[in-house]
Protein: Wadjet protein JetD C-terminal domain-containing protein
Organism: Selenomonas montiformis
Amino acid sequence: MGGRYDDALRKKLSGQKKLTQLWTAALGRDAEPYSYVLTPPYPFSSWNRHFREMMDWASFWRQPGACWTVETQTKRTQGGGRQHDMPVRVRFASAKTVLRYLGMGRMLDWFRPVYDAIAGKYPALSAVCLHYRENLLTEAGLAENMMRLAGYFQGAYKTDCYLREIDIPGVDTKFMENHRELTASIFQALHPELSCGSFRSFCMALRIREKAPEPNIYIRSLDPELTFGGMSGAKVTGEQLAKLAVPARQVFVVENKINGMVFPSVPGSLVLFGAGNGIVPELAAAPWLQRIQRLWYWGDLDREGFAILARFRGKYPQVRSFLMSRELLARYADFLVEDTSAPGAMPDGLTPAEQACWQALDGAGRLEQERIPMREVTEFLRRNAEEEDMRRREG
């Protein structure tokens, strides 16, 4: 009978917000009473049809020896006259009593000394303890590690490092990796002035790196005589690329990986590729590219390709595009596919020829790099070499 007549109240009290309020009050030894309005299973106007259920409901709330007291009133019913002592409100002596009613009394008794130990030493962690109360009761050593983390973050904690470099006596870095949100919550509670609600924002605020950066840029020499560290090719990070000192006269940047791998030989030249759309921010940290006057970019003939070109040119004004012309677009119009990217305004920084190609693309689709025959690359390089030779003779 009990399971039927108080389900609504139990559900109301078991919500996360309400439970947190009750636990906070109980742990704070709040002796204030709690009362809740009771709603009968059926309206009193339907008394005749549900007489037995209504009487059972009233008997449940009036049962002797319960952990609550009940307020009653006389109610007028349809067909049953006046019914005396009908429950209208239930009262609990304290938040602790409410938790015992919900079956959490033993959990409260077990949790209280753990909570008092942590919150007594670090009051700012009160809410964190409440949020992780079940973990604190089931995971051995968690309370001790929480206090060790709190002690570390309250002092001179390390920043601008790898997570693996953080040395907290008694706490290995695997603990922080396996308790990411708990770690962030502890730091946030101790430093509310910083916005570190998630582990990602915690790492950003402290400039903590979880993993070593993955090399994502291929650098490949197009000239057998041009090497770096004795190598003709390597896969590097943006930071490593920035530190390279390569005596190249000309650099080609291509968006597509396979095009970079099969790019033809060119004296005194390199090709950079492999990071896809992310290559521009990676190359932004490579100051040696500033001195490369013959810097080229080849991307897909679509809105995104020209947007990348514009961003690249914003960092390196000398960059020129190749195989991104309106004429090439017309030549391979049969290879166009749908452009599913979001429409946008033409980016600043495009040349008149590039602007014309952008306008021709509008609504026509996109032409991917790998759909353009390699003979077009070879022909461009031949013309480019002739122009360079002519400039040298004239110079």
Remarks:
- Residues 171 and 272 are 43 Å apart (CA to CA).
- Residues 105-209 form one domain.
- The chain has 19 helices and eleven strands.
- The mean pLDDT is 89.
